[in-house]
Design a protein that fits this description.
single chain, alpha+beta, eight-stranded antiparallel beta sheet, two-stranded antiparallel sheet, 14 strands, about 30% helix, globular, disordered N terminus
Length: about 375
């Protein structure tokens, strides 16, 4: 049964013999089983891989379908919240890239500007050279700059989390840590390596160009214009306000819901919901946030062998099993994993997230859910 705005598993009470609907037009009863809910089946499949809680939303021009499974907190029967908030992790990168491309479209900067032009002396040492790296290469992950993520104790272990969950990092401090490491390769559009440091630098460049913080630009250019009421840039604030599931990480299943996410400014700190993310993807691919030239730049992709996809500027291109492809981004930040995206024209979107570190099986089930739902809603 479909209910506009949500799917509810508890609408039908099933007897042990199954639900029976009676038709009386011929004077006899004809039994019909209710149709299976494809989205709920996919969500259940994700939950069966060991995720604590799962929630998904799929939208098209005339529908909004929601399904959930598992619990919002271990050891309780509390359901996953409808439209719950969570840390979207690296899906933040699409927000950052959108702001940078808007600035480029306004003529305030260029994708071919070097990092050195905007951040003199920041990227240097141990073979790193900002004068040889362009803004485009930051957004495309072809800069060669090392990823700072693995150097953050709170993201590495339960002990590290407990020791540093309230620690504040500055962008300059994070980039300084990355500069202690040699680049993975010299800037090269033919080589690719995922690095959160690239997007920390993009956030810093945004502030240098505009004179305002990355968070202010994201709020004024994306969140407020689209009316994303459940989306925020928390800065150093460590709590998730509003309805949300607890997040769990590490082999110990440590509750990691409380986190100062300043180590992920520009790269992974946004808090949102599946519904708001769907609206964002629909607006972005539908041409409401970027002019055609900038959207073409974002969706022009190169091979990203680490992720087994193609990657543009803050947006991945993923093949669909039914033919063609969609654009989206995986997101993960300590205890929450998300996968979502939209068809090329932005008319159909799908987002799923789990509230625990995902196994390979969990992540594959999430990818399958988005693929199957975008394919199913195409017809």
């Amino acid at each position: 049964m479909h209910v506009p705005g949500r799917r509810r598993r508890d609408l039908l009470v099933l007897s042990s013999l199954g639900a029976v609907l009676f038709a009386t037009s011929t004077g006899t009863a004809a039994a019909k089983l209710p149709q299976a809910d494809p989205l709920q089946q996919q969500v259940d499949a994700v939950h069966d891989t060991g995720a604590v809680g799962v929630s998904a939303e799929v939208t098209s021009p005339d529908t909004r379908d929601i399904a959930r499974a598992g619990t919002a907190e271990r050891g309780t029967r509390r359901q996953m919240p409808l439209n719950g908030r969570f840390r979207i992790g690296s899906a933040t990168k699409t927000f950052t890239a959108t702001v940078v491309l808007q600035l480029a479209g306004e003529g305030r900067m260029s994708l071919e500007d070097t990092v050195e032009r905007w951040l003199p002396g920041v990227v240097q040492g141990n073979g790193n050279d900002g004068s040889q790296i362009t803004v485009r290469q930051l957004l495309q992950h072809t800069s060669g700059i090392r990823d700072i993520g693995p150097e953050i104790p709170a993201l590495k272990s339960a002990d590290g989390y407990r020791a540093e969950r309230f620690r504040t990092y500055t962008p300059e401090e994070l980039v300084g840590l990355a500069m202690q490491l040699p680049p993975k390769f010299f800037p090269d559009d033919e080589q690719w390596s995922y690095s959160n440091t690239n997007y920390i630098l993009a956030a810093m460049i945004t502030q240098k160009v505009t004179g305002r913080s990355w968070a202010q630009e994201v709020n004024d250019r994306i969140i407020r214009p689209l009316g994303l009421r459940d989306t925020s840039t928390p800065g150093t604030f460590p709590f998730i306000l509003g309805p949300h599931a607890q997040g769990y990480a590490f082999s110990t299943g440590t509750d990691v819901t409380v986190l100062n996410s300043s180590m992920a400014v520009g790269s992974g700190s946004v808090i949102s919901t599946a519904h708001d993310l769907n609206r964002f993807y629909a607006a972005l691919l539908g041409g409401r946030l970027l002019a055609p030239a900038q959207l073409d730049e974002m969706t022009t992709t190169v091979n990203a062998p680490e992720l087994h996809v193609r990657y543009g500027l803050g947006l991945a291109e993923i093949p669909l099993s039914c033919g063609g492809s969609y654009f989206g981004h995986r997101g993960e930040l300590l205890g929450y994993i998300a996968w979502g995206g939209a068809t090329r024209d932005g008319t159909r979107t799908a987002v799923v997230y789990v509230s625990s570190d995902g196994s390979q099986g969990t992540q594959q089930a999430m990818i399958t859910l988005v693929d199957q739902e975008l394919c199913r809603t195409r017809s």
